[in-house]
Specification:
9 helices, 250 residues, alpha+beta, Glutaredoxin, globular, two-stranded antiparallel ribbon, 16% strand
Length: 250
């Protein structure tokens, strides 16, 4: 091969790579993110924490039209994959209500419904800000066996890393306690494909499910798909789920 041909091939590859990064940057910007100078995605269009859910079982959920094409997220799950009810928990690591739900409500759900195979809970990242986005990306790269422990640690330490001037340093330390090296964390935070996947699921929740804040629960059962906006009182949620289970057995 002639030297000129080699130069042309290299130039063509470089041009294609440039177009890819430009397109990726445009996509991220369209979905509310920009790329920082060090190559990491930063959220610029923020959502907010959801208000508390209605405090009555009749108004607890919002029915989703049967013809709405919702692609169910493939997040990390707790419980039997064949459980009659699946709960998709849209959550942000920086959201105080999400921390309360994960640390206080989820253990009760596990005891009453998950361990007995009645309910399956799938955790879905819905970052509200750039710090939560970093947490979501690192969690996605976490070894499966350490994922839930890492998520619980982020919620327990939410105030520490959330108010820190160097949140990445603390998040990296937490990740190192759960099986990731500093090099793996750094590589993870620069993974544009991963960022795009998180953003796409976030955007679908906004467009298809009308999720505007966190936490939000997508309930999938025999009755169809329903969304609970905000963190419900556990006793009401328990009653709601038992009603769904009763309907499932009819």
């Amino acid at each position: 091969m002639k030297f000129e041909d080699i130069i042309k091939k290299i130039s063509g590859f470089a041009a294609g790579l440039l177009i890819f990064f430009i397109a990726a940057g445009m996509y991220l910007n369209l979905k509310g993110f920009i790329m920082s100078p060090d190559g990491r995605p930063v959220l610029v269009k923020t959502a907010q924490a959801a208000p508390s859910a209605p405090q009555d079982t009749g108004g607890l959920s919002q029915k989703i039209a049967a013809n709405v094409n919702v692609i169910l997220p493939r997040g990390h799950a707790l419980g039997n994959k064949n459980a009659p009810i699946s709960i998709y928990e849209y959550s942000s690591f920086g959201c105080h209500h999400c921390a309360d739900f994960h640390l206080e409500t989820l253990p009760k759900l596990q005891k009453d419904f998950i361990d007995s195979g009645k309910v399956r809970v799938v955790f879905v990242s819905f970052p509200l800000d750039s710090r939560s986005m970093m947490g979501a990306m690192i969690a996605s790269c976490m070894p499966e066996k350490n994922y839930h422990e890492f998520v619980s640690l982020l919620f327990k330490k939410q105030r520490d890393w959330g108010l820190s001037f160097r949140p990445e340093k603390l998040l990296t330390e937490y990740a190192s306690l759960n099986g990731m090296t500093k090099e793996e964390v750094a590589k993870c935070l620069k993974d544009e494909k991963l960022a795009q996947n998180i953003i796409e699921e976030r955007q679908q929740a906004i467009e298809k499910l009308n999720v505007q804040g966190t936490p939000a629960l997508l309930i999938v059962s025999k009755d169809g798909k329903e969304v609970i906006h905000g963190a419900p009182d556990y006793d009401l949620l328990k009653t709601f789920l038992n009603e769904k289970l009763t309907n499932n057995n009819k």
